[in-house]
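From: lab user (bench 3)
To: helpdesk
Subject: output format question, protein + beta-D-glucopyranose

Hello, I'm new to running complex predictions and I'm not sure whether the block I got back is the full result or only part of it. Here's what I submitted:
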Amino acid sequence: MAVRSNLVWLTLALSLFDPTCNAGPVRQREAVPDGFYAAPYYPTPYGGWEDSWKESYAKAQVLVDRMTLAEKTNITGGSGIFMGPCVGNSGSAYRVGFPQLCLQDGALGVGNTDHNTAFPAGITTGATFDKDLIYARAVAMGKEFRGKGAHVFLGPSVGPLGRKPLGGRNWEGFGSDPVLQGIAGALTIKGVQEQGVIATIKHFIGNEQEMYRMYNPFQPGYSSNIDDRTLHELYLWPFADGVHAGVGSAMTSYNAVNGSAGSQNAYMINNLLKDELGFQGFVMSDWLSHLSGVASALAGLDMSMPGDTQIPLFGGSPWKFHLTEAVLNGSVPVDRLNDMATRIVAAWYQFGQDKDFPAVNFHSYVSNEKGLLYPGAVPASPIGKVNWFVDVQADHASVARQIAQDAITLLKNDDDFLPLSTKSPLKVFGSDARVDPAGANSCGSRACNKGTLGMGWGSGVANYPYFDDPITAIKKRLEDVKLYDSDNFPLILTPSPTDDDVAIVFINSDAGENSFTVEGNHGDRDNDKFSAWHNGDKLVQKAAEKYRNVVVVVHTVGPLIVEPWIDLPSIKTVLFAHLPGQEAGESLANVLFGDVSPSGHLPYSITKKEDDLPDSVSKLVKEIIGQPQDTYSEGLYIDYRWLNKQKIKPRYAFGHGLSYTTFNYTDAHIKLVNTLSSALPTARQPKPSVPVLSTEIPPASEAYEPAGFTKVWRYIYSWLSKSDADKAYAVGVSSTKSGSKTYPYPEGYSAVQKPGVPAGGGQGGNPALFDTNFEVDVTVQNTGSTHKGKASVQAYVQFPADSGYDTPIIQLRDFAKTKQLAAGESETVTLRLRRKDLSVWDTQKQNWVAPGAEGDNGKSKRYTVWVGEGSDKLFTRCFSDTLVCERGVESPV
Ligand code: BGC
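Helpdesk reply: Thanks, we reran it on our side. This is the complete output you should expect:
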């Protein structure tokens, strides 16, 4: 039960409200700075019009049509926190054959169970810049979720995007760039969903810091104030890619966007996600962030998770029985409920879960074979078998190891110091070199930092089945190894270091979810900031004083400032191993001893100082009274986009990563695949209408609690007592007849379906945005003579100088990783640029505009596509107008 008790008790402690009743009117919004506004957008667009979902919707409609009112409202909400085996357990409609769905964390493997793989974190996976590996991880994870009986995988996380380097949850996602997040998120969705598991893209949107993320009765969560263009070009971008990949569900964020809370933000859910992006799946609230009953339904929320009000465990809910009541009394239109239920059932059909889906065989909160079925109902919970200990690991450790290995990012390697010879005597420093002596899983939700850091903390973790730690793997290679198992450098070293001695210093930096505080860090790295934890920077400095050759290995959730030691003469090598998951040891040893060359690249920039980034990004918002305002005043300029604009040289740029060998990028060609013949994409097709079920208020009897049913204490049900149902029905019927409405509908409310915004038209937006316009081929050769290696090829676009829009100097648009190339060997890789990659979001036109497209004069403007091995190592460029590529040119930044 330790897992989320902090969250629960914190919320309980803050509670002054009647916990069982929370379906009341919309909370008043706090004022946000001028210029930021979450405009009303109603009604929620129906799902089911997109071709690839039509069949599933047709089946879903048949099933939903057979459901009673209480069955429909049951499947749209969870049974309550700790009220079942999974972190989220939706209600069922067994009478018609629809099961309870199991929704399970975490983003790096099946959470809260056993016999699973603890894969490398998202940030590590992003650092591979390897599409095949990203996909392979997803396939393996999808198999494990399915094997455990989990219908819904609560990942991938592509928000936070990584705007704030100190943000607590950046490590769950893939790196501080929308394209890296977008490609990795979409491949994860594909791999997971191909296994018949519904993926959940999260957190929609703006959860860029942990502190003050949640609404509580005294204070609203912070508002991420994001302008329209920035929203489209950065934060919405990976969600668009995820929807384009057909993602089945989405999770809203805790925070507000432009003043309106994530779970009831009609602009974000109805307009952006369901209309513009054409999302066909269902939208769930983040845990305990569901604030209002009717308002959230109208704003487009489809599933309440875990079902409770903000104050959980009292059987209260904004929906379930309240939603039943709200439909009966006419506050929530019947077609909205039908759409919610149909979206959920359609996703279940879409991924084949109606056929042979395994039953849940684990319990998130009980580790014994038998235990409480509903721990939230203690002491009244029935007891039964809850764990079958199904081993779902198969050979997934090899995928996990490959990713951990290929993510290792060599930042510095003076005098080609690595790889190590197996003869050099090694002295190893730092507790991060070995597993937590109390066990890798000693702290629930990994909310402590006592050994090698394999993952951050919070809901995005999984239990380690075992932990391959670095010191064990190093000792397998070498006899002469001594571990100084402390984070303080020894006062006396005996014997004194010789010139041949090599010191490897392990340091780390941790972060996680705000429900836990670890060593003074409240989720975000607000205490240790950019410094290594446990005085790690000191440890490195001390080692550098005593040893001539020092290798620094960093396990980290994000960037550190390495200035305190990076230029010391004995610091020969620095490796960022990110968060490797269970396979921390062998993967590192393979790199240290040269079995493979490192091939990871930085998924963020490492600046020289905190102030190299603007305050809006480097600082956390902390107002303790009223709603904290997190205003994205830096606009499009985060990470390398900002540094390039300000001409600030980071210590290591986004995309940087060395190898033991060298690569040449030759023979680049740019091919025109589709002419960009107009600035605007081809107009979208009109949205086809979809069949609708009856919109009549159903008879009250569909909501009556069945006679003789024994309820589980505190479990959330969707029935009403006969008298409540009859009363609500009478109100609903009379208001329908008189045309009066009993609910104060929000400003701008309308019940008439809209035709669809011009930027929409398919999953992810107008299908024309995803057409490839150019392809760039480049041949990469391993020009070294000794080591094999994999090269990362990154393509950045530079918009036409006379585009009329302010654009970042360069922006990542695609990437590819070569296979293992032997010395002298080459491979040709292809990168592609789609219309969207060549467009900016025009806030006036409310559409994507390609400023370099052919104008009325038949002339196009020049895009430059830069190709290379890091955002500051781009020595080849190709022009979109002349279709010429040149190499040996100076990098644009
Ligand atoms: C997190 C989500 C997670 C959910 C369920 C929340 O606190 O923000 O990412 O999926 O809990 O555990």
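A quick orientation on your result: The two ends are 51 Å apart (CA to CA). Let us know if anything else is unclear.
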